[in-house]
């Protein structure tokens, strides 16, 4: 007789009537909404004069439709990803820049003529990723770990 149970925990029904899988998808969408609100708040702090925003950075973010449960450390994890529109070509190199990380962390050009021009040579980080995780965790009743794929 085997003591192994073959249970798909994603099919377990929670007290609210949702399966664990449906609850995780709901939580992923809830986090995504919070993150987009934080990015919108960040956008509202500065209105560009020389260029027009495409909102590609905001619109590039999505939550995986497939949610995963990690048995390592008994964590529930939701992966947040972004598509290619999160990247733009550098003005100075042939490389591509991750707009989400750049705007979240901020930057400062160390030399060149534009280093002292706000929002061009330097920009304070918006920290919208951290703010969104903090807001999400205030009502994180399932102990979900948000993982943003850099």
Notable traits:
four-stranded mixed β-sheet, 4 helices, single chain, two-stranded antiparallel ribbon, 8 strands, 150 residues
Short synopsis of the structure:
The chain is an alpha+beta fold. Helix content is 31%, strand content 21%.
The secondary-structure class comes to alpha+beta
The general outline is elongated
Low-pLDDT stretches: none
Multimeric status of the protein: single chain
SSE topology string: HHEEEEEHEEHE
Number of helices: 4
Computed Rg:
20 Å
Spatial gap, N to C terminus: 46 Å
Number of strands: 8
Task: Indicate the topology.
Blueprint lengths: L19 H25 L11 H4 L1 E3 L4 E3 L4 E8 L4 E3 L6 E3 H7 E3 L13 E3 L3 H10 L6 E5 L2
Parallel strand pairs: 3-8
Antiparallel strand pairs: 1-3, 2-3, 4-5, 6-7
Describe the structure.
The longest helix has 25 residues. This protein has one domain. The model has no long low-confidence stretch (mean pLDDT 80). The protein contains 4 helices and 8 strands, in the order ααβββββαββαβ. It is an alpha+beta fold. The strands form 3 sheets. Strands 1, 2, 3 and 8 form a 4-stranded mixed β-sheet that branches. Strands 4-5 form a two-stranded antiparallel sheet. 31% of the residues lie in helices and 21% in strands.
